[in-house]
């Protein structure tokens, strides 16, 4: 039996959009100083839409899966919608929201299940989303507060 949700495991083993993004309009480097995880988020915007999103990291599997799911989820959204999605994910992670309340949303449910079962991994799940918000705001760096 896997320790993590099947969707999380799939994104750990087969990360989507794990690559540099030539021609990125936005880039931010995120750091979790408590564990040493680092993630870079790259965005290409066209007419205020996320035309393409990618990431690279030196990070644990949870940060990797979260970033992979995030890049899939935000591609095609407006910058405002992507920022709102990041804010919503951050709130849900911070609140340790009930995954059952989000059963219709596989990404939210999977990440929230992981955070509920492994509370020490909340910051890992959050790092890509915080870095996304920094990239959207055109800030070069994002650091999780200790």
Structure description:
By secondary structure, the chain is of the alpha+beta class. The protein has a single domain, classed as Sufe protein. Chain: A, CATH 3.90.1010.10. The chain is built from 5 helices and 4 strands, in the order αβββααααβ. The chain has helices at residues 6-13, 61-74, 79-95, 106-117, 122-136; strands spanning 26-31, 38-46, 49-58, 141-143. It has a 4-stranded mixed β-sheet with strand order 3-2-1-4. The mean pLDDT is 93.
How would you describe this structure in keywords?
146 residues, alpha+beta, Sufe protein. Chain: A, four-stranded mixed β-sheet, 45% helix
Number of helices: 5
Average pLDDT: 93
Task: Give a short account of the largest sheet.
Answer: 4 strands, mixed
* Top CATH class: Alpha Beta
Shape: globular
Question: How is this fold's topology laid out?
Answer:
Elements: H1 6-13, E1 26-31, E2 38-46, E3 49-58, H2 61-74, H3 79-95, H4 106-117, H5 122-136, E4 141-143
Parallel strand pairs: 1-4
Antiparallel strand pairs: 1-2, 2-3
Helix pairs in contact: 1-2, 2-5, 3-5
Task: Give the structure's gist in a few sentences.
With 146 residues, this protein is α+β, with helices and mostly antiparallel strands.
